[in-house]
């Protein structure tokens, strides 16, 4: 007989209302554990479950084993130390309201995919008192969700916390002039109908232009009409392509009038509550084309006899909190955007230009307010202490990465020459010491080159490059990491609530999947609940220079969790840090602005600190800005895909060297390394065999030959079809399949697994 939980399902399991009323010799069944987790998503940690069922001593060890088994079986997943059913909605989720049921109750789907299959339906609760947000059909909302545990009807109920701003009526389309001289709008999104434009509403649009239009009320007969609001340019230009992504992902890109007015009315900061650091030769080191400069650095040897060989490293960050105060129009707009979004030839900023490119840009030779941290390191790279200061600074030099690196490499110019010995060499000496600490910490070291698209003056693609990774880049990166750590440590020590940058360890299910894959290559990954980045680094080092180096790096990357923002600290697995918070880019990330406000409040550094109202909302804010970050990444990726697809549209039938970037039972995804673009090869076009999908080995192999294709294989492909608007390309495989690594035994095991999976509904191979 299993133990029974009584009382409220969503209360604190540690209270009398929900404490388990059980006999000491009973243990809960797996179903009761899963039911409790479903009903208490915000109190589903291992300790919470043990307390709810009054488990002690050996029973807690038993519970730990049961929970590990459920994770290994793929029934449970773990995020931020909270367990959840795989495919379950998070306790706080973004929902799209799509309709009503027979009783008039609003129904919603999650805005992002949850597991596989049909998305769960959420019944939206409306407050009887009339207080709180009142959503309607078509709204996107942030809501707390609760499982219903009913056999029929919606799987969840939801309580609305926030309604996101509705999109305007404007839609995107391609302006077309038909043979009869009439004008039509070809929609970018399939769900939009075709529109007619009368000549008086053409607004200068030409055939093939991407335009923003306002649809008119539909008439009873014929297609609806519209008027052109804005001409965004040629469909193949970057400006137009990025605008598609901006609209498709609901990215706010026009600042409201009150936000602009507020930013223009801001007065430059004064010396009130500030230390005068204007004589300290801090320098900014950024990309050559950077338009704003929000961080500056300086270093000097530590003169303390007790710390021989040590250094003092200083990082100064633009004091955005001096201008953007909680609850203002500027602040509300910044939170809605969450972060700046970077496209190849445009930036959608989090803050207006008056703030980001002027008052908060650490311009050379100009007084600027900053929040600075001074850190003392020992000769072996250990941070001994640090202190934060609210200052007025004056940048001694604006440098590009390549410019600073050239000076260190012996080729100084007119700007770097005078500061080479006094500023640049001490910075590089300090970096050498910080690197010792980094090497000792052993963060995850993945070799994944980043590509950059260079555009022509007309906005089309010129070429794609892999920028050289310089020590100057690594220096700034390590200085910023240490400043971020110092911010988190200070706020924790002051017991000040903050938003951490958290990165969970790979789930047990992902670890096991990776372990099985590595076994096919003759590599091993030790089992253990406490994984360390060094274990992954050992594997990566073992394949360095080998043919499968790219494959292993790719699979290790895919095994990692996604970093997020949260007031609950679980550490940062990838950086191998116990506590970490984003502090160094408040111009472009709202998370950093929160950390700045927290430091100001905790250290008594003057006005602009974190308020109690903000502290109470930090969990919701963490969810919001984690979502805007994912939104930005998706929009940036979509824009690159569309640009490259348009660039290659005239090269149909050309051959390309490619690399397999994904394997599914439906076919192969391939990437063109020269362009960083992805395309697809349907399995139905792979000739000569019956191809079977092996999930463990990330491969498709022929049933008769045993030969096939595996993730990261280098192949030759032919471009067959391009859809620039969708950013999609289809390829044909030209390279013959190869014998896959592993013994015959492992091959037959894979074949058996694949056949077993194909015996299940919905899983099929292809015969050619």
Quick recap of the structure?
The two termini are 55 Å apart. Helices cover 29% and strands 26% of the residues.
Structural features, described:
The protein is 29% helix and 26% strand. With 768 residues, the protein is an alpha+beta fold. It has six domains: 30-85, Arc Repressor Mutant, subunit A, CATH 1.10.10; 92-163, OB fold (Dihydrolipoamide Acetyltransferase, E2P); 171-235, OB fold (Dihydrolipoamide Acetyltransferase, E2P) (Beta Barrel), CATH 2.40.50.700; 257-441 and 469-500 and 586-634, no CATH class; 506-560; 650-751, OB fold (Dihydrolipoamide Acetyltransferase, E2P) (Beta Barrel). The protein is built from 17 helices and 35 strands. The strands form ten sheets. The chain has a five-stranded mixed β-barrel with strand order 3-4-5-7-6. It has a five-stranded mixed β-barrel with strand order 8-9-10-12-11. The protein has a five-stranded mixed β-sheet with strand order 13-20-19-16-15, covered by helices on one side. Mean pLDDT is 84; it is low at 1-24, 743-747 and 756-768.
Give the helix/strand layout.
Layout: H1 30-39, H2 46-52, H3 58-72, E1 76-79, E2 82-85, E3 92-100, E4 106-110, E5 122-125, E6 140-147, E7 156-163, E8 171-177, E9 183-187, E10 195-197, E11 209-215, E12 225-234, H4 238-248, H5 257-265, E13 275-276, E14 283-286, E15 295-301, E16 311-318, H6 329-337, E17 341-343, E18 346-348, H7 353-359, E19 367-377, E20 383-394, E21 397-400, H8 401-408, H9 420-441, E22 452-455, E23 461-465, H10 471-493, E24 500-502, H11 508-520, H12 533-542, H13 549-558, E25 564-566, H14 590-603, H15 612-616, H16 618-648, E26 655-664, E27 667-672, E28 677-682, E29 690-694, E30 699-702, E31 707-710, E32 714-723, E33 728-733, E34 738-739, H17 744-758, E35 766-767
Parallel strand pairs: 5-7, 10-12, 13-20, 14-21
Antiparallel strand pairs: 1-2, 3-4, 3-6, 4-5, 6-7, 8-9, 8-11, 9-10, 11-12, 15-16, 16-19, 17-18, 19-20, 22-23, 24-25, 26-27, 26-32, 27-28, 29-30, 29-35, 30-31, 31-34, 32-33
Helix pairs in contact: 4-16, 9-10, 10-14
Catalytic activity: Exonucleolytic cleavage in the 3'- to 5'-direction to yield nucleoside 5'-phosphates
Biased composition (Basic and acidic residues): 9-22
Region (Disordered): 1-22, 734-768
């Amino acid at each position: 007989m299993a133990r029974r939980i009584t009382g409220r399902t969503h209360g604190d399991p540690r209270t009398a209302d929900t404490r388990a009323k059980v006999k000491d010799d009973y243990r809960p069944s797996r179903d009761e554990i899963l039911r409790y987790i479903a009903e208490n998503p915000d109190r589903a940690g291992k300790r919470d479950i043990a307390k709810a069922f009054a488990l002690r001593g050996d029973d807690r060890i038993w519970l730990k084993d049961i929970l590990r088994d459920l994770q290994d079986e793929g029934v449970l997943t773990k995020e931020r130390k909270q367990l959840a059913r795989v495919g379950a909605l998070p306790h706080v989720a973004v929902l799209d309201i799509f309709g009503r049921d027979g009783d008039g109750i609003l129904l919603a789907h999650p805005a992002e995919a949850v597991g596989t299959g049909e998305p769960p339906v959420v019944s939206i609760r409306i407050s009887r008192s009339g207080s709180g947000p009142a959503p309607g059909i078509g709204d996107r909302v942030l809501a707390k969700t609760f499982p219903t545990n009913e056999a029929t009807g919606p799987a969840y109920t939801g309580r609305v916390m926030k309604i996101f701003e509705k999109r305007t009526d404007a839609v995107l389309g391609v302006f077309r002039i038909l043979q009869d001289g009439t004008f039509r709008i070809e929609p970018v999104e399939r769900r939009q109908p075709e529109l007619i434009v009368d000549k008086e509403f053409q607004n200068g649009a030409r055939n093939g232009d991407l335009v923003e239009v306002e649809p008119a009320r539909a008439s009873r007969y014929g297609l609806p009409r519209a008027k052109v609001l804005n001409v965004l340019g040629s469909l193949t230009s970057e400006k137009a392509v990025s605008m598609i992504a901006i609209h498709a992902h609901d990215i706010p890109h026009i600042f409201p009038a009150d936000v602009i007015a507020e930013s223009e009315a801001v007065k430059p900061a004064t010396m009130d509550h500030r230390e005068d650091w204007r004589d300290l030769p801090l320098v900014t080191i950024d990309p050559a084309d950077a338009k704003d400069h929000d961080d500056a650095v300086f270093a000097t040897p530590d003169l303390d006899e007790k710390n021989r060989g040590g250094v003092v490293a200083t990082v100064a960050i633009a004091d955005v909190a001096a201008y953007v105060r909680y609850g203002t129009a500027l602040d509300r707009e910044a939170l809605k955007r969450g972060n700046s979004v970077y496209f190849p030839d445009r930036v959608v900023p989090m803050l207006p230009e008056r703030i980001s490119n002027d008052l908060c840009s650490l311009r050379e030779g100009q007084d600027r307010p900053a929040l600075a941290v001074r850190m003392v390191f020992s000769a072996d790279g250990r941070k001994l202490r640090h202190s934060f200061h609210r200052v007025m600074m004056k940048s001694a030099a604006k440098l590009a990465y390549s410019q600073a690196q050239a000076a260190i490499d012996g080729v100084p110019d007119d700007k770097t020459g005078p500061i080479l010995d006094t500023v640049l060499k001490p910075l590089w000496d300090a970096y050498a010491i910080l690197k010792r600490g980094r090497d000792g910490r052993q963060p995850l070291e993945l070799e994944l080159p980043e590509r950059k698209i260079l555009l022509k003056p007309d906005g089309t693609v010129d070429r794609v490059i892999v920028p050289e990774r310089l020590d100057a880049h690594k220096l700034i990166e390590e200085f910023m990491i240490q400043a971020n750590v110092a911010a988190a440590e200070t706020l924790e020590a002051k017991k000040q609530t903050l938003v951490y940058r958290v990165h969970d360890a790979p789930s047990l299910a992902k670890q096991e999947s990776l372990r099985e894959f590595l076994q096919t290559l003759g590599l091993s990954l030790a089992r253990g609940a406490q994984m360390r980045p060094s274990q992954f680094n050992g594997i990566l080092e073992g394949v360095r220079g080998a043919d499968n180096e790219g494959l292993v790096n790719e699979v290790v990357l895919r095994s990692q969790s996604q970093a997020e923002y949260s007031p609950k600290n679980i550490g940062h697995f990838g950086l191998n840090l116990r506590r970490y918070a984003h502090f160094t880019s408040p111009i472009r990330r709202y998370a950093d602005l929160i950390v700045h406000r927290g430091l100001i409040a905790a250290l008594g550094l003057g006005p602009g600190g974190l308020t109690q109202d903000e502290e109470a909302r930090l969990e919701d804010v963490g969810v919001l800005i984690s979502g805007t970050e994912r939104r930005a990444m998706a929009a940036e990726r979509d824009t690159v895909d569309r640009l490259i697809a348009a660039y290659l549209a005239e090269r149909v039938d050309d051959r390309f060297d490619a690399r397999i970037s994904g394997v599914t039972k439906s076919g192969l995804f391939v990437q063109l390394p020269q362009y960083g673009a992805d395309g697809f090869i349907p399995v139905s076009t792979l000739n000569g065999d019956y191809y079977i999908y092996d999930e463990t080995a990330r491969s498709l192999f022929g049933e008769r030959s045993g030969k096939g294709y595996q993730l990261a294989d280098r192949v030759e492909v032919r471009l067959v079809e391009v859809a620039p608007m969708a950013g999609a390309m289809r390829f044909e495989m030209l390279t013959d399949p190869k014998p896959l690594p592993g013994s015959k035994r492992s091959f037959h095991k894979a074949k058996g697994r694949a056949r077993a999976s194909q015996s299940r509904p919905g899983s099929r191979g292809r015969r050619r």
